[in-house]
Amino acid sequence: MATLGLGLFLGGSVVAIPVVTGVAEGVQHQKKQNEEAANETRMIKFNLDVACENKSVKGAEDVDGGIVVLRHGKVWIVPADPETRTPISPQGHESLSPPLHPFSGFYIQYPDEDRCPPERGLVSTISDDPPMLNWIYCNSNTYALCYGNRTASISHIVGEWDWTDDESALTLDGFEGFVAVDEGEDEAGERDGLRWAVYFDRDDDGLGKGSRVGGKRMLEVELLRRVHSEEEQKRQLEEADKKMQVKTQGDLKSHFSAPARERQMR
After folding, report:
1. For the chain, what are the domain ranges?
2. Are strands 101-102 and 67-71 parallel, antiparallel or unpaired?
3. Which of 198, 231, 241, 259 could form a cystine bridge with 145, CB 3.0-4.6 A?
4. Position 226 pLDDT exceeds 90
5. Whole-Å CA distances, 14 to 3, 6, 8, 20, 21
6. How confident is the model at residue 186 (pLDDT cuts 50, 70, 90)?
7. Can you tell me the distance from the alpha carbon of 207 to that of 225, in angstroms, rounded to the nearest whole number?
8. Which one has a higher pLDDT value, 153 or 16?
9. How far apart are CA 171 and CA 165, in angstroms?
10. Is 93 within 8 Å of 99 (Cβ atoms)?
11. For 223-255, what is the HEC assignment?
12. Residue 258 burial (10 A CB sphere; 0-12, 13-18, 19+)
């Protein structure tokens, strides 16, 4: 009887360990989500500047010191005015309408109750008038960074987005695997002169040693966060209290309150 009792006890323990561990992880994740929901700094908007460590390679001069912009559903790099840090339109496309829109975004939990645990998403304005927000995501097939509403993004890689330990640079899935890909001149006219698209080297293999992008020229880049001015941050924090509140409930579902025009991100 003693042996049988010990066997049942051990069997119960083996079964219980993953259950208890799962509950503990769930509680810990809930705590993390609650802390992040109250962390207003996550909702401070920032732009993305571009740095290319290897400045001697061909094409580096096109992206190093540039800025990230959103257009045609994708994420691009263009030169930036050194004083204003605003995008410079490609040559021959100086009168673009609407003008190039720089990434201007912040972190927020992605609203998908089927993702467990929930993932921290990244949104950006895609226009100033109307003030629309879209999700930034990595296309699960091409690994190109794109933007779109919830319907467009939900089947792709939507997180987890974060920043480096010093909060200076953007990360996805825990590392800075961003690559600028030269999409070529042939179709640049149809893309308003845009050439350098941003991809994420998710498998850390040089985008399949270039096979994912048809052997196109690639440059490793760093996407640097440039937070808005203190005055702008203060205004954003005040707005966050009024209209952009993240409410984390027991089911880990995040609700994002925003004006009707900004809800198009969903």
Report:
1. 37-265
2. antiparallel
3. 198
4. yes
5. 17, 12, 10, 10, 11
6. confident
7. 24
8. 153
9. 10
10. no
11. EEEEECCHHHHHHHHHHHHHHCCEEECCCCCEE
12. middle
Residues 12 and 176: their CA atoms lie apart, in Å, by 43
Q: How confident is the model at residue 96 (pLDDT cuts 50, 70, 90)?
A: confident
- For the chain, what is the HEC assignment? CHHHHHHHHHHHHHHHHHHHHHHHHHHHHHHHHHHHHCCHHHHCCEEEEEECCCCCCCCHHHHCCCEEEEECCEEEEECECCCCCCECCCCCCCCCCCCCEECCEEEEECCCCCCCCCCEEEEEEEECCCCEEEEEEECCCCCEEEEECHHHHCCCECCCEEECCCCCEEEECCECCEEEEECCCCCHHHHCCCCEEEEECCCCCHHHHCHHHCCCCEEECEEEEEECCHHHHHHHHHHHHHHCCEEECCCCCEEECCCHHHHHHC
**Closest residue by Cα to residue 144 from 193, 202, 102, 105:** 202
- Tokens 């498998």 correspond to 203
Mean local confidence (pLDDT), 126-131: 86
For residue 70, pLDDT over 90 is answered with yes
